[in-house]
Each structure stands twice: as C-alpha cells, then as structure tokens.
C-alpha cells in the first residue's frame, strides 16, 4: 500500500464554512408519503430543532497521539478517528454559507451599487459566522459524493459535489428559484498543524452574480485557526484580508479580519471600507464576525476614531502598565460580546442566538441542525451525504458503528481507485466540469446543469 492509499480518506475542511444564525420558516406543507426526521402532523412537516443524540465527550481521547508527528505538515492526508468529527459532511458545511440568503435577496432589491456592495460584504462575513465554537471536523466527502439543499421558503436551491480527492476539492452552485442570483465556487482547504493550533487556508473563490443588475462579485474567505488542539479550551480565530470585487463597476470592498492581538482586544473584529474604481472611500464597515456588521459614512467614522484615540491617550496616563510575562500565547481572550455602535451607523446584519442545547449538539446553529435530516417528497441520488452510513451512525450516537462504516467506505474508495488504475480509466465528475471563471479568468469548477431533472441512473456506487 502506498502512502497515498494509506491516507486516502483524509479529513479536511475546517472551512466553512460557511455560515450564520438567521431564523427561517419552520413549517412546510408536504404529502405524508415517507418516513422523515422532522415532525409531521395533519400534513404539516416541521424541520427538526435538535439532533437524535448528544455528542459524546472527547475528554478521554488524545489528538496529540495522532498529530505529534505532523507538526508543519499539510493535514489532508492524516486520518482522524470520528470522535473528533461532527456529524456533517464538508459538503453540508459549505451549504451553511446560505443561512443568510436574505442578504442576497436584499442586495438584489437595491438600486444603488454601493448599497448592494455593503450588503454583499455583510453576506461574506455572515458566511463564516457559523464557525464560531465549531471545533469538530466535518467528514471529508468521498469522491463523487453530493449534497443538495432545497429551501423553497427561502427562494433558493443548492447542489454540491466532491469533484477531486487528491487534492480534495468541493464544488457548489446555488441559484435563486426566481432567477435573481447565482452563487457558486470551489474550495480546496489546506490545513496545517503548528504544535498547539491547526491553521486552515481556504483556497477557492466565491462568486456571487446578481442577475438583474448584471453584476458579479468575487472574494476568498479569511484564514481560520483553531487554538489549543492539545491542551486547554478550544477556540477559533479568523484573520486576514478579504477583498470583494464588483467586476461590473470596479468597486471594491476591503475587509480586515483582525488577529486576536496580545491582549485579545481585536478578537472577532472586522473592519473595512468600500471604495469606487477611483479609490474614493464610499462607506466604512465594522463589527464582529460572531455578532454583527455596521456601515457608516467615512468622515463620521474618522471623526469618531480621532475622538476615541484622544480619550484613550488621556486614560492611559492614569493607568499603570500591564505585564504579560505570565500569559500563554494561546490563552483564550475575554470576549467582549457587544460592538460599540457609532452614532449614524446602519445595521447590515446581526447573528441570531443558537439553540439552548447547542453546546451538547456540536455547537450547531438552528440551520445546521436541519442539514442531515431526511425530508419528505425528495428524490435523492444514492451519492447524497444524508445517505452516508458513517455520518448517520455518528448522528445517532453509535460511535462504534460510525468508525467501522468509515473504515469500510475508505477501503471501498481505495479499491475503486485501484480498479480504475488497472483499467486506465479516469474519474468523471457528474454535475461539475473544470473550466474558466468568466469574471476572474482563473480555473474553476462550474456547474454543468441537469441535477434537478432528477435522473440519477448513472450515479456511482460510493457507499
């Protein structure tokens, strides 16, 4: 067995991400023709609000025994026990980008390009909000695995496919049911272990097209770091610069996801601005990716900052210096849960509270709770990750079955690859094709169409 086969079912995908805390309508009307996860009474089906079983404690398991030989390595080839996972596929984690789809609908309805840009920026921030406290790893998708997310009440549908395994690449395409927008991209997450933390680089471009306005926006997600992998409380940091480009107008939004800093004052903070093609600032944006985002006039913002600096300088004269010699580098900073709102600011987005039992349910949002449930009146291809036995077993609390099924699927995938190699047969994707992003000119995986025709007769057998 070569090294590539040995680690063929590597776990990847701390990215995700995806996204957010918006409430949505719980009730849908369906005919009662099949058994589903949600409640169904008098013809009314409600999405579930919890998982079938609580997560088990990870206190008796040591990730150090697995990772101690991997410092500085790329983690996509390191197989991990399911106890460190959460019961979702990375394809489902990607779909969490859509939780705040109402922001896209809002952008479609606005007549001013700057107003549209600031709402698109809020959507880009909201897309990583669900990662807050989500320290479990999603399952790495099998080659050819798919996931569909149909939300008629929210006016969109999404299809995703695992289009490559080495490197692991996940492609997705979401579209408005009323032809208002398309949102698509492909993600190749790169994970590295640095002793006490795991760093995820989200390689891949997000593309949002507002069809009515003939506008296309592109951006990449910020870096993500999970601290205290070995000892202490796990916590997540997002950092780096995100540039959102409007390819139609030349406008650009530059968002700075700030690193935590020495005393933790910048934890979760996001600041940035919108500029036109002549680089004139139009709006300033600020907030936290875990809480909210605001927009304000640049002149008002600058005046406030000057006043704030003067107040801080006066206050500093009255305080003694603080020593940090005893502080650990990865100590979790105290979180200041509120953003100081500058007078004249406009609220763009605010997170919704998580369910009361979220901490016992992998810190899932209300949206994430629903992603692996079986829905009535839905014809799924045999490749949909809701049909994966290892994820289903973990969701039901059967860790022994989850581990054994994961091992079986790994071996099945390795065997299929060996067979293709002997027959000199290349893997063919079903719903996406490698092409060129028309807005960036870069190579990208593009949706081929046809998934929702519901003809799945040629789907591969991957489970």
Compact overview of the structure:
The protein is of the alpha+beta class. 20% of the residues lie in helices and 28% in strands.
Characteristics:
21 strands, disordered N terminus, 463 residues, three-stranded antiparallel sheet, 9 helices, globular, alpha+beta
What can you tell me about this protein's structure?
The structure is a single chain. The chain has 463 residues and is an alpha+beta fold. Helix content is 20%, strand content 28%. The protein has a six-stranded antiparallel beta barrel. It has a three-stranded antiparallel β-sheet with strand order 1-3-2, with no helix packed on it. The radius of gyration is 23 Å and the shape is globular.
Topology:
Layout: H1 3-6, E1 27-29, E2 39-41, E3 44-46, H2 64-67, E4 85-89, H3 90-95, H4 101-109, H5 113-126, E5 137-139, E6 146-151, E7 156-165, E8 168-176, E9 181-193, E10 197-203, E11 206-210, E12 215-219, E13 223-227, E14 235-246, E15 252-257, E16 269-275, E17 281-288, E18 292-296, H6 298-316, E19 346-350, H7 366-369, H8 389-395, H9 399-422, E20 432-436, E21 443-447
Parallel strand pairs: 4-5
Antiparallel strand pairs: 1-3, 2-3, 6-7, 7-8, 8-9, 9-10, 9-11, 10-13, 11-12, 12-14, 13-14, 14-15, 15-16, 16-17, 17-18, 18-19, 20-21
């Amino acid at each position: 067995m070569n090294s590539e086969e040995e680690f063929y079912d590597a776990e990847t995908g701390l990215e995700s991400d995806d996204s957010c805390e918006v409430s949505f309508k719980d009730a849908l009307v369906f005919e009662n023709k099949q058994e589903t996860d949600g409640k169904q009474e008098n013809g009314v089906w409600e999405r579930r609000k919890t998982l079938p079983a609580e997560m088990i404690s990870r206190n008796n398991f040591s990730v150090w025994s697995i990772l101690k030989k991997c410092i500085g390595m790329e983690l996509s080839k390191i197989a991990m026990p399911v106890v460190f996972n959460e019961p979702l596929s990375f394809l489902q984690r990607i779909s969490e980008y859509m939780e705040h789809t109402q922001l896209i609908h809002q952008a479609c309805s606005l007549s001013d390009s700057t107003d549209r840009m600031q709402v698109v920026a809020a959507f880009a921030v909201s897309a990583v909000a669900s990662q807050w406290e989500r320290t479990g790893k999603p399952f790495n998708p099998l080659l050819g695995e798919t996931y569909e997310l149909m939300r008629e009440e929210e006016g969109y549908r999404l299809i995703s496919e695992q289009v490559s395994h080495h490197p692991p690449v996940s492609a997705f395409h979401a579209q408005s049911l009323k032809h208002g927008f398309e949102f698509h991209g492909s993600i190749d997450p790169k994970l590295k272990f640095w002793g006490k933390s795991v760093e995820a680089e989200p390689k891949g471009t997000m593309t949002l097209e507002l069809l009515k306005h003939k506008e296309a926006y592109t951006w990449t997600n910020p870096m993500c770091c999970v601290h205290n992998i070995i000892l202490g409380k796990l916590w997540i940091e997002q950092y780096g610069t995100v540039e959102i480009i409007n390819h139609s107008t030349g406008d650009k939004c530059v968002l700075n996801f700030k690193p935590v800093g020495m005393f933790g004052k910048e934890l979760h903070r996001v600041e940035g601005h919108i500029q036109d093609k002549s680089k004139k600032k139009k709006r300033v944006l600020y907030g936290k990716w875990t809480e909210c985002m605001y927009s304000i006039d640049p002149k008002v913002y600058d005046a406030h900052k000057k006043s704030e600096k003067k107040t801080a300088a006066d206050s500093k004269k009255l305080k003694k210096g603080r020593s940090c010699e005893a502080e650990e580098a990865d100590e979790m900073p105290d979180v200041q849960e509120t953003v100081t709102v500058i007078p004249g600011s406009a609220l763009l987005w605010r997170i919704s509270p998580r369910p009361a039992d979220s901490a016992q349910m992998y810190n899932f949002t209300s949206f994430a709770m629903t992603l692996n449930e079986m829905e009535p009146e839905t014809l799924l291809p045999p490749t949909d990750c809701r049909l994966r036995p290892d994820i289903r077993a973990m969701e039901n609390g059967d860790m022994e079955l989850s581990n054994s099924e994961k091992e079986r699927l790994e071996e099945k995938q390795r065997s299929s690859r060996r067979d293709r190699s002997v027959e000199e047969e290349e893997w063919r994707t079903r719903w996406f094709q490698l092409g060129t992003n028309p807005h960036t000119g870069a190579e990208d995986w593009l949706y081929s169409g046809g998934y929702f025709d519901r003809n799945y007769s040629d789907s591969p057998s991957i489970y």
